[in-house]
Write a structure and sequence with these properties.
single chain; 323 residues; alpha+beta; 5-stranded mixed beta sheet; 3-stranded antiparallel beta sheet; disordered N terminus
Length: 323
């Protein structure tokens, strides 16, 4: 593309680099005005006060002219700064610019609009795939779960068969927790869906049976400590799915020991002790899902490793309610 050639769009004619030329013209005229004022003062044509006023007027006019030229760039900057999870495609459309906008600014707007369109399309495809895949997985998972439950009632199963059925049940429960997390992430517009006021401690106690079953077959104990007690205005299902992911991550790090859930003032911590263990793997699948859920619902997730191999994952809740 020839940057020196005029470009037509929206009925107007724009030339690349016109923005720089206009700024050069503004500051050139400003310089000429300053030189004239200095000459008037040197030759005593005008009193000093009048020269100062004239200099102030010339500088103000130059600043207003430069600000007007910068207005389209400033508008694009504000639109980009206002991006949340979905870009505003209409605000970035090049047709929203005035006919006097510089061709470079139009090129910038066109590139940002194309980039935002690709991001929006990618997010939509990701949500559709996650939602459809999660729904399609629920049916066969229900069949596996019911079949495994029926096998547990068989009295003629060998010890090996009983252990195999328990592994199937544990894997099924883990898959259920994973599907729940994927559905939460797929429903972009359901951030406020299912909200109710609940006590965090009570929801954790109600979910202990499911958590214990998810850890069945592993030499891992699950305990709850409650130095504090508080409530939230949110979805209890989302809260439990987030806790499930942190507990699954802790159980992946060690095949024995104790996983401790601690309810602190405005926070819930999941900790486990691993001897001779490195720092927390921040790229694990469970932690990746937990991080995305925490970002979606604005519940900061903090990870740390203390002396002695103690791994701690804590969730802070900025807006808590008294229990």
């Amino acid at each position: 593309m020839d940057r020196g050639l005029p470009r037509k769009q929206g009925g107007g004619q724009r030339r690349a680099g016109a923005f720089h030329r206009r700024l050069a013209l503004i500051f050139g005229l400003h310089l000429i005005g300053v030189v004239i004022c200095v000459m008037l003062g040197v030759y005593g044509v005008a009193p000093p006060v009048a020269i100062l006023v004239l200099l102030a007027v010339i500088s103000a006019l130059a600043w207003l002219a430069a600000r007007r030229q910068w207005r389209p760039v400033g508008r694009l900057a504000r639109v980009i700064d206002a991006w949340d999870e979905e870009p505003d495609l209409d605000a970035l459309a090049p047709t929203r610019l005035s006919d006097q906008a510089d061709a470079d600014v139009v090129t910038l707007a066109r590139g940002l609009h194309g980039f935002a369109t690709r991001i929006a399309g990618y997010n939509q495809r990701e949500r559709n795939f996650t939602r459809d895949a999660s729904h399609e997985l629920r049916s066969p998972l229900t069949v596996i779960k019911m079949s495994a439950d029926m096998l547990t009632d068989e009295s003629e199963l060998s010890k090996f068969g009983v252990r195999s059925v328990k592994r199937i049940q544990r894997a099924t429960r883990e898959m259920e927790a994973l599907i729940e997390a994927l559905l939460i992430l797929a429903r972009e517009s359901d951030v406020g869906a299912g909200e109710e006021e609940f006590v965090v401690n009570d929801v954790l106690h109600k979910g202990m049976d499911d958590l214990q079953q998810m850890l069945e077959g592993r030499a891992v104990d699950l305990k709850i400590e409650e130095p504090a007690r508080f409530a939230l205005r949110a979805s209890p299902r989302v809260f439990m799915v987030l806790c499930w992911q942190l507990i699954r991550n802790a159980s992946q790090q060690a095949d024995h020991g104790t996983i401790l859930i601690t309810v602190l003032p405005g926070a819930v911590a999941v900790s486990n002790r691993v001897e001779d263990a490195p720092a927390i793997d921040r790229h694990g699948f469970e932690l990746a899902i937990a991080q995305r859920i925490s970002e979606r619902f604005h519940w900061p997730l903090e990870l740390q490793t203390r002396d002695g191999g103690e791994h701690i994952a804590s969730i802070r809740f900025p807006e808590t309610l008294p229990a």
